[in-house]
């Protein structure tokens, strides 16, 4: 039985360029497109959520988005068919429909051990032509291998350390890329000149702050949203200790505050 080696989080990260291209806020001046993309995103995300785990009620469906064609600076309609239970196929289809890069799509890993293989068996059993091997002998061998303890030698320790270092390096690179996407999204939505992190905390805390600000923009009333955008437009947004307007006109939001506290200090001046 094959199992997917990706999570809903992996899917969300792979779809970041797509979400950025179809985000309803990009079409604030076109209510029809904004409403269409918002509704289509709800259907699109709902279908993906039903794949983790796969729902019994899942049904194929079509969604339409409008994106900006950079070649002629005009709107272009794209239709995406949602079908099947392979999330990475849907991710690739969505990215290719928008002519976006697919090189960052994670590779799926599959497990295809025979149904009779004991739990925790080694990869030795995978890929063997069972018709040429006596199954009883193979079962005995696998049980014996399972009882054996892995050798605690220097070579295995070094290999484990190397694999762990490579994994952490890839995770750090992925964090940097997603953080850059988050910053670019805030700059695009508000017109901010730059976003600066002035804390010595981990970058994951900056992502949390950017996410809080993004949700504030999503959930705020039109008046409050316009006020926030007006305050950040062409200014530097800083995350540090405390929320206030800096002497140079830049805006600082408290990294240890929540959006409600940002609003309570009346950081953003009203017209």
TrEMBL record:
What protein name applies here?
Answer: T-cell activation inhibitor, mitochondrial
Looking at the UniProt record for this protein, which Gene Ontology cellular component terms does it annotate, in alphabetical order?
Answer: mitochondrion
Lineage top rank: taxon: Eukaryota
Domain annotation DUF4460: ranges:
4-100
Q: Which residues form the DUF4461 domain?
A: 154-265
InterPro entries cross-referenced by the UniProt entry: DUF4460 (IPR028031), DUF4461 (IPR027989), TCAIM (IPR027986)
